[in-house]
Specification:
This protein has helices at residues 346-355, 384-388, 391-398; strands at residues 5-6, 14-19, 25-30, 34-38, 43-50, 57-64, 85-89, 94-99, 109-116, 123-134, 137-139, 143-145, 150-155, 165-169, 172-173, 178-180, 183-186, 195-201, 212-217, 223-228, 233-234, 239-245, 253-258, 266-267, 270-273, 282-290, 293-301, 303-304, 310-314, 320-329, 340-344, 360-368, 373-381, 403-408. The chain is mostly beta strands and 415 residues long. The termini are far apart. Helix 1 (346-355) crosses helix 3 (391-398).
């Protein structure tokens, strides 16, 4: 048998050849001696061959891990590769192996074998193609502080051939960040950079790395204050103010202030006011603080009086009308705590109504003593001047003539 001559390795090509019995050399050239493939990907091992003249190729196949003295087994007949391998050859003596759904246990040396019409004229391209299998994973810090720089690296355990890396944040491709080779560079990190990062290789985007969570330490960015229960706050009721924020690490120090005061009125995420009074009306703000800074949130607390005014009018000629005025006061009032008896015209009634507060709803209902409703009006009082300029209601009240007005308030604001 003729001696085997092995040429030195060439870039991306491995050449095996010997002189054939008919004066022509055997040769097997692999395009790559070693291939790095992503787990679950599809890989191709390609090459070409020649054989001595006068021989006819009767069969070719691939096998793994050649061992001297051991008969090779066709890869397509091994159960672990069933349905995952395909062999290709053409008239120009090119050959190829397609291996699908690559697994870590596929890390072997793959060799191409040629059989001819002459029993002793067979050839194996050794040492073959070495397959390495890798997965992508992100190497990065778990937490950074706002303002710092962070680098995220898409790592492999072997060298992929000419990869173009793609980065994702929270499942969406990143297009505005600095990407160089397999590295994502975050310059001057902000709280917006916090999220889940993964990487992939173009052409195999479905084979992404495991997601890596990046946390950013930062002071509170948003602080909100809510009031419970919601709606109108009436004297004597109880309310709770709650402060919420988004700092990282989470805010644990909350301090409450009332506008105009220098000392805190409370601490903790919740601040409760029991039996609220008019004196509690004002702007409240909480200071939310963590290790990296503080931020304020504000809320306006408006306490409405329980006072209810009942007004009776007597109009001449024996005709009596009962006018009930309900006044919803939007500010705390300390007026009219005793009994009054005054004489007003219709226009002056409006002035009296507005004098109870600069804003609110003045609801006037005029009823006949028999109970028939004659007029119902709702005036949205934005300020005194607006009410006085409401000519329609002024005219209707003035048409009643002079009226005797009786206002009754109890000292504690209740009828």
């Amino acid at each position: 048998m003729r001696s085997l001559r092995t040429a030195p390795p060439l870039p991306l090509v491995f050449l095996l050849m010997t002189v054939g019995a008919f004066g022509t050399e055997w040769s097997v050239k692999y395009n790559q001696q070693e291939i790095c493939a992503l787990k679950r990907s599809t890989v191709f091992m390609n090459g070409s061959y020649t054989h001595p003249e006068g021989l006819t190729v009767t069969g070719t196949f691939w096998y793994i891990n050649p061992v001297k003295g051991v008969k090779p087994t066709d890869l397509s007949k091994e159960p672990v590769y069933s349905g995952r391998v395909e062999f290709f050859t053409d008239e120009q003596k090119h050959f190829s192996l397609k291996l699908s759904d690559v697994m870590e246990k596929d890390e072997h040396q793959f060799c191409f074998r040629i059989k001819t019409n002459v029993e002793k004229q067979r050839w194996v391209g050794k040492p073959g193609v070495q397959l390495r299998v890798t997965e992508l994973h992100v190497e990065a810090p778990e937490e950074v502080t706002e303002g710092e720089t962070a680098d995220l690296t898409c790592k492999t355990t072997c060298s992929l051939t000419g990869p173009t890396f793609i980065w994702y944040k929270n499942g969406r491709p990143l297009t505005t960040k600095a990407i160089e080779n397999n590295q994502l560079h975050l310059q001057t990190v902000s709280s917006e950079d916090a999220g889940s990062y993964s990487c992939a290789v173009r052409g195999s985007q479905h084979l992404r790395s495991t997601a890596h969570s990046l946390r950013v330490r930062h002071p509170p960015k948003r602080v909100s204050v809510s009031i419970s229960p919601s709606g109108e706050i009436v004297e004597g009721s109880s309310v709770t103010l709650t402060c919420s924020s988004d700092g990282n690490p989470p805010v644990k120090i909350y301090t409450w202030f009332k506008e105009g005061g220098t000392s805190p009125v409370g601490s903790g995420q919740n601040y409760s006011i029991i039996s609220i009074t008019a004196d509690h009306t004002g702007l409240y703000y909480c200071v939310a603080q963590n290790d990296h800074g503080a931020l304020n949130g504000t809320v306006m607390v408006t306490v409405q009086s329980r006072s209810l005014s009942a007004v009776w009018f007597a109009v001449g000629a024996g005709s009596f009308l009962l006018i009930t005025v309900f006044i919803c006061i939007c500010r705390s009032l300390k007026l009219y705590r005793s009994l009054y008896e005054v004489l007003y015209s219709g226009t002056e009634l409006c002035r009296f109504c507005s004098a109870l507060g600069e804003g609110g709803n003045c609801c006037i209902s005029i009823r006949e003593s028999g109970g028939l409703e004659l007029i119902t009006r709702v005036i949205d009082v934005l300020n005194t001047q607006q009410l006085l300029s409401n000519e329609t209601i002024n005219d209707e009240l003035h048409s009643l003539g002079n009226v005797q007005l009786y206002i009754q308030h109890s000292l504690d604001g209740r009828l």
